[in-house]
Design brief:
- This protein has 175 residues and is an all-alpha fold.
- It has one domain.
- It is built from five helices and no strands.
- The longest helix has 48 residues.
- The relative contact order is 0.12.
């Protein structure tokens, strides 16, 4: 991990940026830029988390609407409803669950990268509220009990729906 972190540090910091000594009585311009970039980067990371929540809502809505439609149509038209329609519906919904799962996985990977970059940026700031405070000293310490990652819970949802659709698919084949 140390080699990867060292590689990240060298990728994040621009060696050609002029961190010249500030004139007497003035503030270091490099520190001002760093703080502004840090604020912008944290805001972008927060927006990505909001997009992830919106993505979850989108996929959850698709699944609930599809279940409602399939169940309603099957109940209203039991003679016309065939194993073929159930099979096709189940396969389409299983595929949608794969897309949902891998979308969440991509968000998790992107989040991990963003929070690692935040930690590197915090190395040059007076405090490290996220990397050493929130995560390092508090959550990872277990003072709140065992931490259950939100991304783990999020990724359970497509798996739960997918298992249900797989059962629907198998039932339609055996019927």
């Amino acid at each position: 991990m140390s080699d990867a972190l060292d590689e990240l540090r060298s990728a994040v910091w621009n060696p050609s940026f002029p961190f010249a000594s500030p004139p007497a009585g003035s503030q270091d311009i490099g520190s001002q830029f760093l703080f502004e970039q840090y604020k912008l980067y944290v805001e972008m990371t927060d927006r990505m988390s909001a997009r992830r929540a919106l993505t979850n809502s989108f996929f959850l809505t698709i699944n609930l609407a599809a279940l409602g439609a399939v169940g309603s149509l099957a109940a209203k038209h039991p003679r016309d409803w065939s194993a073929f329609v159930t099979t096709i519906s189940a396969l389409a919904l299983i595929a949608e669950c794969f897309v949902w799962f891998y979308t969440l996985r991509s968000y998790r990977q992107l989040s991990n990268a963003k929070y690692t970059v935040i930690g590197v940026l915090e190395e040059k700031l007076p405090s490290r509220p996220y990397s050493k405070g929130e995560w390092g000293a508090y959550i990872r310490s277990g003072k709140q009990g065992k931490y259950f990652r939100l991304t783990t819970a999020e990724q359970m949802m497509p798996l739960i729906f997918g298992i249900g659709y797989l059962a629907m698919f198998l039932y339609s084949l055996l019927k």
